[in-house]
């Protein structure tokens, strides 16, 4: 044990870059003849020494953790080999003794349960996890999604935290399948009142994608590699904060704070006397948020849960009998979804819509309780968002309008490869003049439908106005062939909107801008493509617009109807 050392890797709040916790990781295992951490645990497991070894390691990790500056405000994530629960000498209670010896709070430690090994006594493991939860230990499921029974464990034990495995996060910014899967896992967890850590994040792009999806915390080389030097653990990670500020600059703020109800919460260790007194003093309040000693939300207490006690002959006596386990506040706490105050309004609305039986959502700041957003206030927020969206939509196609298009160009990340494309319908004014506005609107809607059909959902698609459209994409493919295909389909379908005579002739007679009669070919569409890489679009948005506009004129006379260039 003396040869082994402990390294710590920080876990930070994804919205602030401030440290939330550290994970303890075993180091110097090669000094005892092992090639990996897993080999160490396999060795002691085979010798039936796993539990004793783990207890000694637990003490070593906690002792070193207590040397981190301001450790009192942090959590320590400690990995439990789930084979511990099979050991003949396994006995709950030893961790509390270690914590007491080192003067560390119970809530400080978070046990990570790995799905790496399948165990025979799953019911015993679930009972032990429940014991840890009852003792105010935080429980996290590590490597979520790659083990044997993750969703079952999620359902049966309801952990406080899940850590999404690196497998799902690697290149998530480029992989729509991974993004959708992680989004589903994250939203399910949050709906159940479970926090989510994105584990193994290595790039700024992965970080921002996890933030966009709704993860609460992040861990990985992008933040900091594991270190054995406790002095290297920082309170804030400024390179992360810089990324957050840049992302925040690009996004609009939300109006959440003006609706937030800062309900005074109850502590999870409050007596039932205090609970009853709370509702007597606040008789118009049907519920109250509950927090732990670290000011982290643990759920909601509903007054309706104790009404049967209050109105039965001996109910009040039973409820207030603190010697009864059933009379503890923790037994009445209901899970409630929570999210950070900096979350997008769309995330909050989606959370609420998937939890129809909840009275609202708990709002946090730096993982600490901030207030409560009621169902009625979420509906008001939703109404505000709908009004804003309606103002920014093109009324005909219901696509984002010119203001959003301009903002999209100005806020795209400067360190990624993007495709921008302007579309302009050729000879549309002549068609509109001859066939009327109603048919002109049908042509506009036709092109909008073809855009949605040929370009993936991940593409941003906007309707600038009139017969001008815009798309942008971070797709790995160059998009050229897809655009070529949609141009061809539009030209073929647009012909059906002419009379048979005009189709056979191949042109129409209409007035030009000077009022002179002339021939106009049938409707086509021109496309101006621009590939952008490592360019700060916020600084060069006008330049980009000028390039696209000039190319659009060239595309009208090009037989392919497409002109493309690069800005690298």
UniProtKB/TrEMBL annotation:
Classification via SUPFAM superfamilies: CBS-domain pair (SSF54631), EAL domain-like (SSF141868), Nucleotide cyclase (SSF55073)
Ranges where the EAL domain occurs: 1-240
Highest taxon, organism lineage: Bacteria
Any GO MF annotation of the entry: cyclic-guanylate-specific phosphodiesterase activity
CDD domains: EAL
UniProt-listed PROSITE patterns: EAL, GGDEF
Domain GGDEF, residue spans: 416-567
PANTHER family, sorted: CYCLIC DI-GMP PHOSPHODIESTERASE PDEF, SIGNALING PROTEIN
Name of the protein described by the UniProt record: EAL domain-containing protein
Organism for this UniProt entry: Sulfurimonas marina
């Amino acid at each position: 044990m003396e040869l082994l050392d402990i390294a710590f890797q920080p876990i930070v709040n994804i919205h602030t870059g401030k440290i939330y916790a550290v994970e303890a990781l075993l180091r110097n295992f090669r000094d005892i003849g092992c090639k990996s951490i897993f080999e160490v645990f396999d060795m002691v497991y085979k010798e039936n020494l796993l539990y004793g070894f783990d207890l000694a390691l637990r003490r070593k990790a906690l002792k070193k953790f207590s040397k981190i500056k301001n450790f009192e405000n942090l959590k320590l994530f400690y990995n439990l080999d789930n084979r511990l629960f099979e050991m003949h000498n396994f006995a709950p209670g030893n961790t509390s003794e270690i914590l007491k010896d080192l003067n560390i709070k119970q809530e400080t430690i978070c046990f990570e349960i790995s799905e790496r090994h399948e165990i025979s006594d799953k019911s015993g493991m679930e009972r032990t996890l429940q014991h840890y939860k009852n003792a105010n230990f935080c429980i996290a499921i590590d490597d979520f999604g790659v083990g044997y029974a993750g969703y079952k464990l999620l359902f049966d034990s309801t952990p406080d935290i899940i850590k999404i495995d690196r497998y799902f996060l690697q290149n998530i910014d480029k992989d729509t399948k991974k993004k959708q899967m992680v989004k589903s896992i994250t939203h399910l967890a949050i709906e159940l009142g479970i926090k989510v850590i994105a584990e193994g994040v290595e790039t700024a792009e992965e970080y921002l994608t996890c933030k966009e999806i709704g993860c609460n915390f992040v861990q990985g080389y992008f933040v900091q590699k594991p270190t054995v030097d406790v002095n290297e653990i920082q309170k804030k990670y400024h390179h992360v904060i810089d990324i957050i500020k840049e992302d925040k600059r690009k996004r609009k703020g939300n109006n959440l704070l003006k609706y937030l109800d800062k309900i005074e919460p109850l502590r999870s260790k409050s007596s039932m006397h205090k609970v009853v007194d709370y509702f007597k003093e606040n008789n118009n309040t049907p519920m109250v948020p509950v927090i732990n000693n670290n000011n982290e939300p643990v759920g909601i207490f509903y007054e309706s849960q104790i009404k049967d006690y209050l109105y039965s002959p001996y109910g009040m006596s039973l409820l207030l009998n603190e010697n009864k386990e059933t009379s503890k506040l923790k037994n009445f706490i209901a899970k409630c979804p929570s999210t950070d105050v900096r979350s997008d309004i769309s995330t909050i609305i989606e959370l609420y819509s998937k939890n129809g039986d909840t009275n609202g959502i708990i709002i946090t700041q730096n993982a600490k309780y901030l207030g409560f957003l009621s169902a009625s206030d979420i509906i008001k927020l939703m109404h505000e968002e709908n009004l804003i969206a309606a103002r920014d939509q093109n009324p005909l196609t219901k696509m984002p309008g010119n203001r959003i298009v301009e903002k999209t160009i100005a806020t795209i990340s400067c360190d990624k490869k993007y495709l921008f494309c302007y579309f302009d319908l050729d000879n549309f004014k002549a068609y509109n003049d001859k066939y009327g506005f109603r048919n002109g609107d049908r042509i506009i809607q036709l092109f909008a439908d073809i855009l949605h059909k040929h370009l993936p959902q991940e593409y941003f698609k906007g309707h600038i106005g009139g017969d001008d459209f815009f798309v942008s994409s971070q797709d790995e493919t160059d998009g050229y062939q897809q655009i070529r295909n949609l141009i061809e389909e539009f030209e073929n379908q647009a012909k059906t909107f002419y009379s048979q005579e005009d189709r056979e002739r191949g042109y129409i007679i209409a007035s030009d801008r000077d009022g002179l009669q002339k021939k106009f070919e049938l409707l086509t569409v021109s496309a101006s493509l621009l590939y952008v890489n490592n360019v700060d679009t916020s600084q060069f948005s006008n330049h980009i617009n000028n390039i696209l506009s000039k190319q659009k004129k060239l595309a009208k006379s090009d037989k392919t109807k497409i002109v493309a260039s690069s800005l690298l």
